[in-house]
Amino acid sequence: MGAGSRLRMVMTVGGVLLAAMPVRAETVGECVPFARSMSGIEIYGDAWTWWDQADGQYSRGRRPKVGAVLVFRPTETMRLGHVAVVSRIVGPGIVMVTHANWSRIGGKRGQVERDVTMVDVSPRHDWSAVKVWYDTNVALGGSTYPTFGFVYGTPAPNAPAGRRAAAPAPNLSGPSPDYIGAVLDSVG
Fold first, then answer.
1. Per the domain annotation, does 6 fall within a domain?
2. Domain span at residue 38?
3. What is the pTM of this model?
4. 139-186, pLDDT tens digit by residue?
């Protein structure tokens, strides 16, 4: 494997590898322009503002869909919020996301992570609180993050005439998503 690549091994049983996937670090910078390019949703500004900006432009909700953008609320440690694009639905309460500028990979911010685990930990199972894979931990991060909900690529019913549906980028998901690892990550 070349520079910027690593191999994530999930589990071996009796010497048999159950899941492994190469992960290649790709630097792009901030989460917002990356989420816009991956989702096709034309919203600009700080991540936390996407929820209100989508009102009347794009449909919004509390259920994940591939290509939808989950908008994180600002917190003390994440003042501008965060956005992540759903790349795969694994099962109830478990998705994979593709996002940028989350984990420090090789000590650097601004990296892209494709198909990493995100788990709904909200009391009402409405995705209002999540845990996200954190590369440094090689596991779900220890923090719980509050969210507004998902912005979908479909125009809102009251959207201005001419608002087109957004289409996720063809490279939103990687070629070998680690479903077994996502499930294992979710049970801690």
1. no
2. 23-186
3. 0.84
4. 888 899 999 999 999 999 999 998 999 999 999 998 888 888 888 888
